[in-house]
Amino acid sequence: MDKIEHSLLSAMPVQAFSLKLARTAIRMTHTPSWKINKINPDHDLVICLSGSAVYDLDGEKTELRPGMAMLIPAYQRFLGQYAGSGEMLTGVAQHFSLELFGRGDVVGQMNLRRCVKLSNWDVLEPLVRHFRNTPQGTTTTLAAHHQFMVLLLAYLDDALIEWRTAANPQHDQDRLSLQIMLTASRLAADPVGAGGLTEALAAVPYNPDYFRRAFRDRIGMTPQKYRELKRMEFAVNRLGVGLSVKEVAAELGYSDPYFFSRMFKQYIGASPSRYRWAGSSPIDADEIA
């Protein structure tokens, strides 16, 4: 699959996802005698901090070691047991569900590696420990949702093999939601490309007018306006590193910097000159407002 699709979730608007934590985090602290044989009604993400364990899911054995994360799908029986050499097995497990536009299970639409070594473990390990050790009551907190979302996205980014796009008449709305996510992410990934919008919509297996309406219903704006928003967000970044308004306008293909400035203010809510990097050269008198 295209590399872009491995970071689709991070490119989507926050309102696209509904993360639900079925319970507070499970603080794993197991001795060599530990064993488990269970089925959970929710997905379960397990992250190991110390020691090791072997899990058996449908006859497939997986060893979980420090820095590794493993997904146990909902309603799948799993067996686990301690596999270390005397060190305590510690980590955290979180039961969750993740829906796309409130219409379908995101995880169920992915082909994932069951267990991965988290690529940014040096950064993620302190967060995992904080998430595990933060005192929790009987209900999950907003902070716990935010922290777990970071960990979940890190796992999905490393584990994603491909998206399941095969036809399934019983889940047409799930397929439509997935196509909207793919399209939105492609638009966000290539804000400068001249044919980005046309190419992204040409790859969609739906009637163009129907898809545009569905996209607007879920994202809150049409594909064209969504791409323009992402272009203006790209412009914010370029202005922030010191480029002039005229330079950014030209980079985005605007022949008229004044028109670019009006579009920027319409989408961002402030003039482009407000976003110039504080360390850049002084703004010229003819700088576009």
UniProtKB/TrEMBL annotation:
<dbReference type="Pfam" id="PF12833">
    <property type="entry name" value="HTH_18"/>
</dbReference>
<keyword id="KW-0010">Activator</keyword>
<dbReference type="GO" id="GO:0043565">
    <property type="term" value="F:sequence-specific DNA binding"/>
</dbReference>
<keyword id="KW-0238">DNA-binding</keyword>
<feature type="domain" description="HTH araC/xylS-type">
    <location>
        <begin position="206"/>
        <end position="278"/>
    </location>
</feature>
<dbReference type="InterPro" id="IPR020449">
    <property type="entry name" value="Tscrpt_reg_AraC-type_HTH"/>
</dbReference>
<dbReference type="InterPro" id="IPR009057">
    <property type="entry name" value="Homeodomain-like_sf"/>
</dbReference>
<dbReference type="InterPro" id="IPR050204">
    <property type="entry name" value="AraC_XylS_family_regulators"/>
</dbReference>
<dbReference type="InterPro" id="IPR037923">
    <property type="entry name" value="HTH-like"/>
</dbReference>
<protein>
    <submittedName>
        <fullName>AraC-like DNA-binding protein</fullName>
    </submittedName>
</protein>
<keyword id="KW-0804">Transcription</keyword>
<dbReference type="InterPro" id="IPR018062">
    <property type="entry name" value="HTH_AraC-typ_CS"/>
</dbReference>
<keyword id="KW-0805">Transcription regulation</keyword>
<dbReference type="GO" id="GO:0003700">
    <property type="term" value="F:DNA-binding transcription factor activity"/>
</dbReference>
<dbReference type="InterPro" id="IPR018060">
    <property type="entry name" value="HTH_AraC"/>
</dbReference>
